[in-house]
Amino acid sequence: MPEEPLIRAAHDRGVTTLTLDSPGNRNALSHALVAELTERLADAGKDPGVRAVVLTHTGNTFSAGADLRDPPHPDALVGLLRGIVELPKPVVARVAGHVRAGGLGLLGACDISVAATASTFAFTEVRIGVAPAVISLPLLPRLDPRAVARYYLTGERFDAAEAARIGLVTASGDDADTALAPVLDGLRRAEPQALAETKALLTVKVLEAFDRDTRTLQDLSARLFASEQAREGMTAFLERRDPAWVW
């Protein structure tokens, strides 16, 4: 039997919605999900009938981060994030749940992100012995530097209002769809070529970070994921216990 798709696609009035649909691992960024999402985004980017793309999810988690059992290759993750930034159509994240670690890289790559007030966010990498390396490519150019230092270093959880304050999301509301509606209305009223050129203006600094820092951050990620500390951290996470370094 063919495998069930991990990404569901729908189209309405010029907007393609791509839904992460891997509830068994809380939409973690597995090798297969990253590959499928990259392909779906590329298709939307080439379709003249697509004005914008909405990236959303099933279940109560937008994405739990990298799938520790089946992680994507670092080149594939970079390709996905850069593909979102370079797509000639605006990409809007709709978050009606929680986002952790690598899932936050998707939000950083999107042009606009809206979240329900009940959503929570956390950069949990340091708690398993690694660093938010590759996902920093779209995030660091866009986030408040003092806030990101705190949340990168502590792994603390924060809410949607704080995510909006530091630039991780554009807007939050009681309901994600209510927050999304005016955004989609505005995009549907915009001329497609004007959208593409305006997005190119807005993403210059982010793409400069990709050009400058990709190899360095990929090397950092590979080194940390191969370390004894990461093995202990990931084992502890999968076993639902504290790693050895917790006091």
What would your notes on this structure say?
This protein is of the alpha/beta class and 247 residues long. It has one domain: Alpha-Beta Complex (2-enoyl-CoA Hydratase, Chain A, domain 1), CATH 3.90.226.10. The chain contains ten helices and ten strands. It has helices at 31-46, 74-86, 103-109, 136-139, 145-154, 160-165, 176-188, 192-202, 204-225, 228-239, and strands at 7-12, 15-20, 52-57, 61-63, 91-95, 98-100, 112-116, 120-122, 157-159, 171-173. The strands form two sheets. Strands 1-2-3-5-7-10 form a six-stranded mixed beta sheet, with helices on both faces. Helix 1 (31-46) links the parallel strand 2 and strand 3 (52-57). The chain is globular. The termini are far apart. The model has no long low-confidence stretch (mean pLDDT 96). Belongs to the enoyl-CoA hydratase/isomerase family.
* SSE order: EEHEEHEEHEEHHEHEHHHH
Biggest sheet descriptor = 6 strands, mixed
How big is the Rg? Answer: 17 Å
Distance between the termini: 48 Å
As for the CATH topology, it is 2-enoyl-CoA Hydratase, Chain A, domain 1
**Beta strand count:** 10
Q: What form results from the Cα inertia axes?
A: globular
Strand content: 15-25%
CATH class: Alpha Beta
CATH superfamily grouping:
2-enoyl-CoA Hydratase, Chain A, domain 1
Mean pLDDT: 96
Judging by the overall fold, what is the CATH architecture?
A: Alpha-Beta Complex
The helix tally amounts to 10
Spatial strand order of the main sheet: 1-2-3-5-7-10
Proportion of residues in helical segments: 40-55%
